[in-house]
Amino acid sequence: MSMDLGVTKKVQPLIDAVRKMIDEDIVPANEEYHAEIGNNPEHDRFKLNDRQLEILDGLKAEAKKRGLWNFWLTDSDRGYGLTTVEYAYLAEEMGKCPLAAEVFNCSAPDTGNMEVLERYGTDEHKEKWLTRLLDGEIRSAYVMTEPNVSSSDPTQLSFEAKKDGDEWVLNGEKWWISGAGDPRCAVYIVMACTDPEAHRHSRHSMFVMDADTPGVEIIRPMQVFGNDDAPHGHMHMRFKDVRIPADALILGEGRGFEVAQGRLGPGRIHHCMRAIGQAERALEMMCKRGLTREAFGKKIATLGANYDIIANCRMEIEMARLLCLKAAHMMDTVGVREAQPWISQIKVVAPLMSTKVVDEAMQMHGGEGISQDQPLAGMYTSLRTLRFADGPDAVHRRQVARAELRKYTNEKI
Amino acid sequence: MSMDLGVTKKVQPLIDAVRKMIDEDIVPANEEYHAEIGNNPEHDRFKLNDRQLEILDGLKAEAKKRGLWNFWLTDSDRGYGLTTVEYAYLAEEMGKCPLAAEVFNCSAPDTGNMEVLERYGTDEHKEKWLTRLLDGEIRSAYVMTEPNVSSSDPTQLSFEAKKDGDEWVLNGEKWWISGAGDPRCAVYIVMACTDPEAHRHSRHSMFVMDADTPGVEIIRPMQVFGNDDAPHGHMHMRFKDVRIPADALILGEGRGFEVAQGRLGPGRIHHCMRAIGQAERALEMMCKRGLTREAFGKKIATLGANYDIIANCRMEIEMARLLCLKAAHMMDTVGVREAQPWISQIKVVAPLMSTKVVDEAMQMHGGEGISQDQPLAGMYTSLRTLRFADGPDAVHRRQVARAELRKYTNEKI
Amino acid sequence: MSMDLGVTKKVQPLIDAVRKMIDEDIVPANEEYHAEIGNNPEHDRFKLNDRQLEILDGLKAEAKKRGLWNFWLTDSDRGYGLTTVEYAYLAEEMGKCPLAAEVFNCSAPDTGNMEVLERYGTDEHKEKWLTRLLDGEIRSAYVMTEPNVSSSDPTQLSFEAKKDGDEWVLNGEKWWISGAGDPRCAVYIVMACTDPEAHRHSRHSMFVMDADTPGVEIIRPMQVFGNDDAPHGHMHMRFKDVRIPADALILGEGRGFEVAQGRLGPGRIHHCMRAIGQAERALEMMCKRGLTREAFGKKIATLGANYDIIANCRMEIEMARLLCLKAAHMMDTVGVREAQPWISQIKVVAPLMSTKVVDEAMQMHGGEGISQDQPLAGMYTSLRTLRFADGPDAVHRRQVARAELRKYTNEKI
Amino acid sequence: MSMDLGVTKKVQPLIDAVRKMIDEDIVPANEEYHAEIGNNPEHDRFKLNDRQLEILDGLKAEAKKRGLWNFWLTDSDRGYGLTTVEYAYLAEEMGKCPLAAEVFNCSAPDTGNMEVLERYGTDEHKEKWLTRLLDGEIRSAYVMTEPNVSSSDPTQLSFEAKKDGDEWVLNGEKWWISGAGDPRCAVYIVMACTDPEAHRHSRHSMFVMDADTPGVEIIRPMQVFGNDDAPHGHMHMRFKDVRIPADALILGEGRGFEVAQGRLGPGRIHHCMRAIGQAERALEMMCKRGLTREAFGKKIATLGANYDIIANCRMEIEMARLLCLKAAHMMDTVGVREAQPWISQIKVVAPLMSTKVVDEAMQMHGGEGISQDQPLAGMYTSLRTLRFADGPDAVHRRQVARAELRKYTNEKI
């Protein structure tokens, strides 16, 4: 069976255009954008000030004008009709600059949420939210993770949705809700337990709702290694008697995990390819540092184990990228469900590999490597969170192992 | 040759007393102290406010009252006369809470600086600064690292000191100067290049000076993974025509490295034992989490590879501690110079081991592990910096290897 | 650029046919063949007895009859015209049984030697040796490695060839000459130093010669972890005034390294893909063992870290295979020279990965895993030698690092 | 609590004497001894020929004469009364040469078996076997491991002993019975299942018996990576209606595991310290090789990552030795049972560390490293078996983890 993991003629010009716009426009703007954080009248790091909005809107308008928009919509006539493999190469480029994915309307959690609405939403859902999300007018949040529940076993999630007449009433806490602090975040996709007595995988349902529904409270931003990641952020939220209409339900009662699975496949690959983009960037920094800084009268790249370190980073990036492309190829050809073991593989490999490469790059930079003068520490902390996001490593290794063992047994594993 | 690495009868009661005071007094105060950061009229995170000073002064007075003070003074009649091995056990305890070392007047960089003054300082130096440091009235900074110089080869340091009549004139930049932001920091030990034409190891000299000498400017706090570590902090400083008297010179012109070496031996062991204390704390947290959190109907400690992870952490902590104690024992018996290979060994091992243990503990905690709700991320970032502090891993491995090879050759290695 | 790493329609039936013949014919014969070692009148483990020849000849005749022959000849009209990628999949299959590669006339060192003769040999060379090698009538050896010379720097090789009238006179020792003990080995490709004063890479020349030339002495078989690998073996040889004709020279004086490089590219990929085949076999054994053996009332596959171990093996095999296929693809598209960094990468990765997987499989089998009752120990030792063969890991990492650094500098690295 | 891990005045002269005798007498004899293997009239590699016996007996007589005998008898007035810590240093020395431990009557499995007889044997047992074992006249075997049973869970062992009148009747197979092939092996300690219906840890009993009892058949030597380890060897045995007297029972019915545990503690430490001795020898070889062999005009020790490799080996040896000494110290002070977690720790650490060091030493030696010209491959294979012997790594990690978790819970773990 053919397995073309290369850059196609179709995607090559898009890669070039994305790379050019990142280098020339987004990287410089990115710095100013982040320097502006907190510079608004209320001193609120999560409020975007006028200059930030101007930067973002300008870049997004330009991207749209150039036709660099919504690449991730692989299966829809609203997008380019790229394959997941093709998109993966674009995701790698976008990984190299924090602001890039949003500029091209390809950022998490919006892409996953749009995918949910596109695939499982009603016409009303689509009309109300999908169009504006696709246009980049609003942003969204995916409200799933809860405090006090082991993220390795989401069947334990206890945030509750109870039917009350024509409405659902939501109660409970959620945290690590990325993007929920952004003032432009207008819609939530929410996982809630609708029947705690049901079978493990039928207890939960998925809902879509307005972000400004009464009863929703943002308690605080969660910190990642002490950073609040403003203005995007990861919020700790409380829902108190939040009432949403009956048709907020997506796909059907008890089908929350089905929606979640469909959502997670592509998103994991996007995350992983962006991680690989960051690893490439770190390796480039490592090499350049190694060639310009000297010790004992020699370039440090040539000292000690540094050749081995650089070579190992190159080999591990190559392998992780190929594995990620294969997972994307599987998604394109056999579908999310069958591609699951490969998606789990790359979900383990890419974050581990990229944190390791960034860690080596930090070490090659000396103390400067962990300071604000280099982007490496920020890359490290954001990559480190990927080892929890969408399931910790251990859960994915378990999936891979069980798929492997099932080749040799019909018994339940 | 006897090599007693155990807890002696002399130090056991001190360990007990230190542990008791940390648990009962310092841990609770630590939280309040850090919550107060930035709560002063000028909104300056590096200014201590009244409540912070009250907390600190209260704890220090209590420690002094209980006779838990200046343990690190191993060879002096001003201290307990503990061996380095004995002190190492105390350092491990103090590593378990950020504020602890300072409360017992055992914190870096003061201990190293006091050691310099005690060992190499003139009577005037001692009178002016050592007594107050020993009393915990003032704090100090060690001003060595420079931007743009590879930390693996300090002979390249170019911050300059020029003789001008009866004075030395200092010019240049320094960074990662820990504690220089603390308003109580009154004295600097400064490494400067006094003769760039001299032999590699004779170019530099060490000076001691008042922190408020005109011409010294604190540019900014360096950030560690985005954190400023206020109020202690790591400062980027500029010296512009800073004039200090001739007798600020320590030990003699061109003997800067000699002073630095004498200073670094014990300090590295203190750092390492505190790192081991943090690793112990992380392992304890990992076990408790594994016993209280469940997934798939089982305690997570019993799932997957977690037994192996816990066991590996235990084994690596045990081994690192023993190696550290052996290095301390070598210092006690054969002196800093001969103990150098062991000190280099532990300088590599302890930070690597402890970052790894903390990383596993974070993973066992799920997303919470990297958040502000647990101390793990803060432990991680502070331990990660140890892989640069006092020389990066590569330099210490090089030292260990050369010592090993010299057993078999008389040629220069 | 397209990068199809999949199984093509062209090669799929060949894979099926090879797999079928290995499973049905070669695996059973392999056991008998190896049990016969040493069962000849002279008790010489390197002499093939009648039964061994019968087995081998029978299998080879059958393979030839089925058209399963000389797949490796990628660029020639004498072969299938497979791409290196296509061949790689066949090499993986052949790696799963020790005898397989030879049965299909695809075994080292013959393939590399045939490649040398095909590419650089004169018509006489081809007529005399290539045809018979392609027919599987004779075998060959590649006589390069020398005792007392670091294999990381082959420019030091000192085995000498001196012109004497119309002849070259060879003197010196060689070792690890694989296959030279096989009685059917009729031809040697020999690297010799022809001008020790020339530039590092022009000192050596390559020769082709009859194996039964007077003066060639086989001293002993080298042992690999105590095994002589009979009847193939790795010989220690001495050449004493061995005279060969002037036209034994290949390509030209001083061009030995050029020939060696051309020879090594494809060979390394073959080795690596066979290694991956062995890793796949080991993983299969590990899973089956884990499903059938119990401890504490549970299948051992489900105990402790075994899920993680199985998952890691699967992921590392996947990644190594993809990297190997990419290296093959580069060879197919940009040529051996440009593909060099990828070939070096896979030369490091595949042996390390496969020894690790086999080691885990041994551990999962308990003591039996290292015994004669399982093939794992034999697989381990043969894979371990690959970390020396054709250059040790360190040399290949160096190549990879230098290629990486050259992207950012024009200076010599 | 004091923890003296150093070399005491008592053991220092013994270390010196052992080292001297190994260097001057045993190392040279060792080579001749092993070269003689198989040189006996029947071509049986497991029969000792006259020259072998002469070598062995000569060395043993000399050792006895010098008072270098039975050091391991830590608690008895028949030995030196060394502590386990003191003995550990001697074991390390003896690990450096294969024949050494036997020469000083300190080799496995005899020491463990003597310990069993000394501690649990009746006066008759002692008289019949212990005295001759202590004198080095006979050797012994420990008959525990069985085919088809996962070594991680010995409660599954099914080799059976049935009471029949005044006798026990033994039936079943055992394998990996080290030393049972040695013609001087006169006594077996045998673990057998006496009550399959009893509680997991009460099913088995321990017996002592003459090796030449009718019905015992040695089927074949097990091979370790293809080597039979003659003449010591590891035998696969079959017992068919083997009748032994009632008083062959040790300690009592159902107390087999109790005996096994008492036996295994010290033995594991001996194994581990010998492994550390081998690692030291490998590191020495690695350094010497690195200093004498050149590539690219430099000593290979100074190239690439070799400094790091040497340093890592040194650090890991140091740490493993200290951990082993601590385990020995715990045995000396709190007893085998309480020392169990430390013994499990060192049982995991020492074999892994020493195989790794030897593997690096092989790599530094190039192909020669795995050949018969260097002892490294033999060291590797014998160390690799330690990861199975007396329980695989996974079982020991499990023990360590459970001990750790029990600090924080009273529930069953």
Automatic annotation (TrEMBL), chains A, B, C, D:
Residues 13-137 form the Acyl-CoA dehydrogenase/oxidase N-terminal domain. The keyword Endoplasmic reticulum does not apply. Signal peptide: none annotated. It holds the Pfam family Acyl-CoA_dh_N. Residues 141-237 form the Acyl-CoA oxidase/dehydrogenase middle domain. InterPro entries: Acyl-CoA_dehydrogenase (IPR050741), Acyl-CoA_Oxase/DH_mid-dom (IPR006091), AcylCo_DH/oxidase_C (IPR009075), AcylCoA_DH/ox_N (IPR013786). The keyword Hydrolase does not apply. Keywords: Flavoprotein, Oxidoreductase. It comes from the Bacteria. Residues 254-403 form the Acyl-CoA dehydrogenase/oxidase C-terminal domain. Homodimer. This is Acyl-CoA dehydrogenase family protein.
